[in-house]
Amino acid sequence: ETGVTQTPRHLVMGMTNKKSLKCEQHLGHNAMYWYKQSAKKPLELMFVYSLEERVENNSVPSRFSPECPNSSHLFLHLHTLQPEDSALYLCASSQESGQPQHFGDGTRLSIL
Amino acid sequence: GENVEQHPSTLSVQEGDSAVIKCTYSDSASNYFPWYKQELGKGPQLIIDIRSNVGEKKDQRIAVTLNKTAKHFSLHITETQPEDSAVYFCAASYRSGGSYIPTFGRGTSLIVHP
């Protein structure tokens, strides 16, 4: 039990589909993060939500859209993805920004 | 922004040996340096961290050292065991507005042979 739960664990979708990834944390943390993990590349921070402030990596395409309705839930909405978007998407949370992060086990996304 | 370099990319040791993984960073404003261990099929898990006001920190077989002047930090694992086999990531966090932004290294695959 990691305290950070991601669903689904695996997702296969076509390029024209719309889907959402979900993350939930039960640790009482105030910051949540989305990362993309591809083979042979560093973990890439996509979005940070901290105390109602959103920070985003400017290199993330607009086909990825985050939503953080409250401090316990985080979504990543996917629309018209490309094959190069296939990767492991990790969610993490921390007490505050700059504190140790707790990661979920990720959603393995495959784009056909 | 920050740039983190991590070496080596692969490290193979015999059980009982020590393992050292090194990272360098570019932004002197970075002040938080965590290390994560990722096992197959799992998310990364924090194993140790250090802040820029400390030079060294130890937790049982694991230690981290930080040289702010040279902008590098290292992970040391002593008396390695097969269950230490995993991918290890370093990170450096810098402040952007009101948030701290972590930048990760590419990872080191540690293999401990029994």
Description of the structure:
The complex is a heterodimer of chains A (112) and B (114). With 112 residues, chain A is mainly β. Chain A has strands spanning 4-7, 10-13, 18-25, 31-37, 44-50, 53-56, 64-70, 73-79, 87-94, 102-103, 107-111. In chain A, the strands form two sheets. In chain A, strands 2, 4, 5, 6, 9, 10 and 11 form a seven-stranded mixed beta sheet that branches. Chain A is globular and about 35 Å long. Chain B has 114 residues and is mostly beta strands. Chain B contains no helices and eleven strands. In chain B, the strands form two sheets. In chain B, strands 2, 4, 5, 9, 10 and 11 form a six-stranded mixed beta sheet that branches. In chain B, strands 1-3-8-7-6 form a five-stranded antiparallel beta sheet, with no helix packed on it. In chain B, strand 6 (56-59) and strand 7 form a beta hairpin. The N and C termini of chain B lie far apart (41 Å). Chains A and B meet through strand 5 and strand 10 of A and strand 4, strand 5, strand 9 and strand 10 of B.
User: Approximately how much beta-strand content do the residues of chain B carry?
Assistant: over 45%
Reading the helices and strands of chain B in chain order gives EEEEEEEEEEE
The share of residues in extended strands of chain A comes to over 45%
**Structural Rg of chain B:** 14 Å
Instruction: Give me the count of strands of chain B.
Output: 11
Characterize the quaternary organization of these chains. heterodimer
What portion of residues of chain A is helical?
Answer: under 10%
The number of distinct helices of chain B, counting runs of at least 4 residues, comes to 0
Low-pLDDT stretches of chain A? none
| Overall form of chain B | globular
**Mean of all residue-level pLDDT scores of chain A:** 92
How do the strands and helices of this protein lay out in sequence?
The complex is a heterodimer of chains A (112) and B (114).
Chain A: E1 4-7, E2 10-13, E3 18-25, E4 31-37, E5 44-50, E6 53-56, E7 64-70, E8 73-79, E9 87-94, E10 102-103, E11 107-111
Parallel strand pairs in A: 2-11
Antiparallel strand pairs in A: 1-3, 3-8, 4-5, 4-9, 5-6, 7-8, 9-10, 9-11
Chain B: E1 4-7, E2 10-14, E3 19-25, E4 32-38, E5 45-51, E6 56-59, E7 62-67, E8 72-77, E9 86-96, E10 99-104, E11 108-113
Parallel strand pairs in B: 2-11
Antiparallel strand pairs in B: 1-3, 3-8, 4-5, 4-9, 6-7, 7-8, 9-10, 9-11
